[in-house]
Design goal:
Keywords: Signal. With 705 residues, the chain is mainly beta. 2% of the residues lie in helices and 53% in strands. It has 5 domains: 153 residues, Immunoglobulin-like, CATH 2.60.40; 115 residues, Immunoglobulin-like (Sandwich), CATH 2.60.40; 116 residues, Sandwich (Immunoglobulin-like), CATH 2.60.40.1240; 131 residues, Immunoglobulin-like, CATH 2.60.40; 131 residues, Immunoglobulin-like, CATH 2.60.40. It has 2 helices and 49 strands. The N and C termini lie far apart (121 Å).
Amino acid sequence: MNTSWASRITRAALVMTLSFAPMTTTTVNASSSESQNIGSISPFDSMIIELNQVTLLPDQAGSTVTFTLTVRNNGNSDQTPMDYWMRLKSKSGSRYNVQLMPSDKNKSRVPANSSKQFTYYSKVESGIKLQDLEVEFYKLDFSQPNFERSLGQIPVPASYSGVTPADEGSIIQVDGNDIQAKIHKFSRGKNEKNYLPGITLSMENVGDTQLTLPDYRFAIRTSEGLVYPLNAKNGKDTSINPKEAKELQLSGTIPISVNPDDWELLITQSVTDLKMNTLVSDIKLPPVIQVSGGEPGQEYQFSDKSGEYTAQLNESYRLPWEDQDILNANVKLINKGSDSLPIPNMTAYFLLDNSVKVEVKLVQTDKAISINAGSSIDFQAVGKIPYTTQFDHIKLVLQEKESDTQTIDLVELTGQSDLQAIPFIGSDSSYKREDIGCNSKYTVSSINTYTGPAGDLLSAELEVDNLEKRFNAIAPMVAHFRAADGTIFPAQVSEITNPIGPSGKARFHVWTTLPQGYTTENMQIILGDAVTITKDDKQEVNKPDAYVKPVSFGLPVEKNDVKNTLKQIELFPYTISMSRIGTSIDTGKFYLNFDYDITKNSQTVTNTEGHKLVLVFDDHSGNVSFERSYNLKDFENPPGDKTTETESNQLKLGKKQSFTISVNDQNLIYKTEFLKKYNLSIYDEFNGQRKLLGKQSIDWFVYSD
């Protein structure tokens, strides 16, 4: 063996033969499962070798070329094409070694009357074009001067682009099954810096068995050859049944300086063993459909007879409501012009998975009758669905009402598939609301647990500050308590109907009933503005049946300390102090006497309905016990005539000396030798359930300090 012959054999050994198994994933650009025949050769009558597809993917080190060959064995016996070799050549004469994909290394033969596909790759330098390449086939022949006998070449035609037209599907093979990838929709919004492309890619399993999509990567290639990655929703480990199609949502950002015309969608797959990516499919993007994409804050312009508006879809939420869920989305309407615009007479609906329509009510949360130049107003879109409803995609379609029976579509806003988490406010923080005309601050100041035989009543004290320079009516609220495990407890909110003055405050009670002993650790309050979706014409005032603009609050630690004196006891908005507490017995009556001082926090408006101060007297020996309750709402407006006994026995705002409570007990005089000490306790009672605030132990017949 001479050196020249040996070197040629060594060079040939670096080039792969045709004896290998099909690659796990190969591609063919076509509108059906039939392979596209770029060119073919026939080494002998019973064998045909076809070149079906060639792709080129630039990378940092040059470019990666992949191509697919179909070997058709039309004979009656298996073929082992060990003697057939190939190489990739450029038309300028450069030669490139080709190698088989690792998954094909165990292939040894092509069965009789069958065909199989094989995929190869080769690294080429930058600047090479597909049309510069050809695949050369040869056979070792030691009778030839260079020990090679040419079997033919298949050049890549000048007209070949390797790009699937936008209106056709690209057939991709996954583990021997065909998937047709086709672009269903292409939208392109933009902001000041970037284009915001949105692509809906349909992946249809046209085979006969279920398959799982590999971990594909997606990108856009521009007309300048620049490549920008895309994010894919549901693009990995997605199972597709036979004859079933699933849609992938692709999104990304591309600098606005890039030419927006003639973009292509690239689908690539990583070959782990080789640490490189290969191009699976290249699809021409169709004309842009002018709708906004799926990222919050993206803007879209539309016009009506009044002028040009900009719509912006921001936060979207799914909220609990009894056995239903509420869909709530924030829509901002912006006027970027130089003149004020009227507020359009709009309606809307949600569209789930491009098929299920959900009626929507639009609620204007800003106090405005027009949109000033350079400003905006907010709407809340709200609708209801059964809580068991599942969906992958959501859109909000805004419409303008031209009459009671006619509407026109203004804009289609595509929201996030994963709805956002409700904004959370920590227990030591406040929530600032910045709606036009409704600037305010919300704080959960304290919580209280009231015990009772049927369960625990949990009440949160919600303080609202008016940050407006005018009187402000606080919007009616809907509330739920949400436990750490996600359990929802509907809550009630006290009513405060009077507007709050500038820099004034209001304190609302938000309460629910929990099972006795139920833990409140990591519990939250979900609050929102009350709205009515469905109105009953028979009712003058319709009850809220939904809410919008949700926010959740962490609960502060409850104060459970019980004072051992009855001084400075707080029952908001009142503070009570008792002194000179004493007892006496006279002619069959027992008397409890004390001085009191009741003050009020006048800076905060609240509703004391359902709250009582309860005094409980109990003797240590069990000889006498009683209780008296006083409505907080009567502290300033006692019931009855001021001359009646009822009024004189009512606790009132201010100071009082020698306030007396009397109890008939004819036999108490005979028990005096057993009377040593007694307890006087103050309870905060709310809706019939109590919380102990203070308890003082005092000697009988002795006045306390």
